[in-house]
Design brief:
Radius of gyration: 29 Å
Shape: elongated
Distance between the termini: 78 Å
Strand content: 15-25%
Structural class: alpha/beta
Mean pLDDT: 77
Helix content: 40-55%
């Protein structure tokens, strides 16, 4: 969808602005810039594009050609991340809280006009940007969160294995798993030569537990 509109709205704080209404598969972008032929007028253009990388790269090139200096989008689920990450190196990007946008009187009721409404609010300085960490900080945060998730998964698996061994009355082997840090260390301490020859075989936990209890 392409629409060109001329509006007499002097006093805009941001001359060249774009607003994105981002969805899962598509996004609607509204660009508002000064009109070339009519001083004091604003030219408005609305387009719809896919959220795939090639389409977003084309969108970035178009915004740069339009001289856009600020791109604003709502923090809708995680859908804002692809356009934000592809645009942030070339254009200043804001992610705004949807609650702040909805609290402004006069918001349109149709999704097609959301990007227009967002652009008009942002160009007048009526919105504030949410804090988005710089790229290195985001990468470090993702890494630490992933490490924490793996640690939690490991703990759950140890507890599950310990409960299974406790039900099988293999208390000593269970204690070695919980205290020493894993089943592999318990096996290696008791059967180093056999593990090197044959490796781990599924279903040998009970036999090894009995050997540990009798050893």
């Amino acid at each position: 969808m392409v629409m060109d509109e001329i509006t007499e709205e002097p006093g805009a704080l941001v001359e060249r602005i774009a607003a994105l209404d981002v969805g899962k598969a598509t996004l609607t972008v509204c660009v508002r810039v000064p009109h070339e032929d009519k001083p004091g007028a604003r030219r408005q253009e609305v387009r719809t594009c896919a959220t795939l990388t090639p389409a977003l790269l084309e969108l970035r090139d178009w915004l740069v050609c339009q001289g856009v200096t600020l791109v604003v989008m709502e923090a809708t689920s995680a859908y804002w991340k692809p356009p934000f990450y592809l645009l942030e190196d070339d254009i200043e990007c804001w992610v705004v809280n949807a609650r702040d946008v909805k609290n402004v009187p006069g918001r349109p009721k149709t999704d097609k006009l959301d990007s227009v409404w967002l652009a008009k609010l942002a160009e007048r300085g009526m919105l504030r940007a949410s804090f988005i960490p710089p790229r290195p900080q985001r990468q470090l945060r993702d890494l630490t969160r992933y490490r924490r998730t793996l640690t939690q998964e490991r703990t759950r698996e140890k507890q599950r294995a310990g409960k299974l061994l406790e039900d099988a009355q293999l208390t000593e082997l269970r204690d070695r798993i919980v205290v020493s840090g894993g089943l592999a260390s318990a096996r290696a301490a008791r059967f180093p030569a056999r593990d090197q020859r044959k490796g781990w075989r599924a279903g040998s936990v009970v036999a090894e537990g009995a050997a540990l209890r009798s050893g």
